[in-house]
Design goal:
Elements lengths: L17 H8 L4 H8 L6 H4 L11 H12 L17 H6 L1 H9 L23 H12 L24 E4 L11 E7 L12 E9 L6 E9 L4 H9 L6 E2 L17 E6 L6 E2 L4 E5 L4 E9 L11 E7 L4 E8 L2 H5 L13 E8 L3 H9 L8 E9 L4 E9 L5 E7 L9 E10 L4 E8 L8 E2 L2 E2 L17 E7 L1
Parallel strand pairs: 8-11
Antiparallel strand pairs: 1-10, 2-5, 2-9, 3-7, 3-8, 3-10, 4-6, 4-9, 11-20, 12-17, 13-16, 13-20, 14-15, 14-17, 18-19
Amino acid sequence: MDHRPLRSRSSLAAAAPALLSRLSLLSFSLTAALVGCGPADEGEGEDAGEDPREATYTWHRDVAPVIAEACAGCHVEGDIAPFALTTYPEVSALAAILTPSIEARSMPPWPPAAGCNQYEHDRSLTEEQRATLLTWLDEGAPEGDPAEAAPLPEPADAWIPDVTAAMPEPYVPAIEPDDYRCFLLEPGDLAELDGTRYVTGFEVFPGERAVVHHVIAYLVDAEQVAAFEALDAGDPGPGYTCFGGPNGMQGSGSGSGARWLGSWVPGSTPWAAPEGSGIAIEPGVRLVVQMHYNTSSSAPVADRTSLGLRLEDSVEHPGMMFPLTDIGWVTGSSPMTIPAGEPAVVHSTTIERDGPLLSLLLGRLGVGASETVAISSAGLHMHTLGHRARLAVRHADASESCLLELDDYDFAWQGGYDLREAVQLGPDDALELSCEWDNSAENQPIIDGAVRAPQDVAWGEGTFDEMCLGVVYVSR
């Protein structure tokens, strides 16, 4: 039986039960998870909100709008988070676990390191919001007067796609607590394409939000569809097992023609290409999704997720998602070896503008050798041993533009990040990619209740293999 690994860093050593292990992947400390799962201290609920001192901040006047903006994307009834944070009784009852999470900046989860770049849709708390919440909690979480209630943020307008495609049939997660499963979506409205169109936006519509932890979407061009149909047919049940990407457990030789479209995590907003840009698709294109199901907070239930796309007939600046890595790592000609037992293994590479990888990708986009292109989003991908990663542009004048840096990489919270301002990649520039892994005994996966012994690891698609991959949106 194939069981997905749980992390076993020293901070998780006591978390043998799968529930607590997965709650830690939701960025709460083990202590916080234990408090949240246990009974409240006697009298705790009675004291909350009844401090006779004049309150600096109150729930109705100051705190409710912050919680609605920062937490309601995940912490609502029926969603992936282990508890709801939508009402005063819900929030005040959990005051003991909110303070350490806010102090540690682990909630809301926002993986990018400070100081690298600035991003759209930043989920992290502002310093003012953080101070408001911590002061309110320190003063006993007073409720205040409902008559002073501040308006809550307006919900976003409904996102209406031009075309949709769905999983062929419902799927019930079969591996607990984490199941990684890929699905070749039904053609849906894409079957009606009769010429080149451009994807200018996409959104994921989870069928069962309580178990869908994250989704990565890929475009499969017509000539590659048969390879993915074979992967699906070769695995019993709906879809097929996958981990590192959409190629199943077969490695990059199977279904290697998939193009990265984007990712989704709870609380994220629909992806939109930069103004005037989009990703070209042709008739016969299909979509593959890698689903990460997590059942720590919910019993396994049937899910049938769908994807929506916004399309345009033409765009001024065609774009593509570029996968960036060292070709030698992938082929094994320059192995990305991560020795067993080593706690800090670093591999770095420089991806030159005129090198084979960028030359190929830019050629597909129709970019000439002397043209400058714009990078407007960035993501980083490793597997479960990944600890840190960084992607930057090294300019011809020796200056650097950091695209994305992750100081505490978490496979469960991978995603893409839209830059507030695009970074230019000129004809004499290069990209610098660096990844660090922890292959020590304290950071091994837990399989069937036992910690796996450290082993030498290299590049691969499998559960216990590793990767170092950057993904950027490039437009001309």
